[in-house]
Amino acid sequence: SNYSNIDGWEALSRYESTTAINAFKAQSQKDPKASLPKIGFALATALQGESDKAFWALNLALIADTRDLRYFSADSGLRLVVDDLLDNYQNKSLMTATLLYLIQDYRSAQSTIQTALDECDNCTGTRSLQRLIQQRLNG
Fold first, then answer.
1. If you write DSSP's letter for every residue of 66-109 in order, what string do you get?
2. Could you give the CA distance from residue 3 to residue 37 in angstroms, rounded to a whole number?
């Protein structure tokens, strides 16, 4: 794929959502179990306003192997994208908790994940994010 050598996170931080989506798809094909490319895909999709597809992808990401997400930290460019998404997805608690986690606001993420747990039917992805948040809060 032409996108396999493109940094999806860098493209996302430049608001190049289509390029980011294709780069994250290529990364997911290389490592189907990794959660970070799926999260990147979800965020890029959310940036395009496709909220249902974004939530579907986010849930897939959170039930995948989240070890690669454990120490992820958004750089300054990506933080702008996250801030924009936080403004647009305030009523979606799982997305909000994930975004807060990515910018290392673990306390806010923890309170938001409780709301997400109250709202979910199949909570596997939500519980996975809750564990990640707890690990970061507990050091």
1. GGGTTT----HHHHHHHHHHHHH-TT-HHHHHHHHHHTT-HHHH
2. 13
Q: How far apart are CA 100 and CA 55, in angstroms?
A: 15
CB neighbour burial string for 33-72, b if at least 16 within 10 angstroms, e if fewer = ebbbbbbbbbbbbbbeebeeebbebbbbbbbbebebbeeb
Integer Cα distance of 107 and 101 in angstroms: 9
Longest dimension (CA), the chain: 42
Express each pLDDT in 29-47 by its tens digit: 999 999 999 999 999 999 9
pLDDT level of residue 137 (50, 70, 90 thresholds): very high
Q: What would the pLDDT profile of 89-136 be if each residue is shown by its tens digit?
A: 878 899 999 999 999 999 999 999 999 999 887 789 999 999 999 999
CA–CA separation, 44 and 13 (whole Å): 10
Please determine, for residue 4, whether its predicted confidence score (pLDDT) is greater than 90: no
Token representation of residue 102? 């990515």
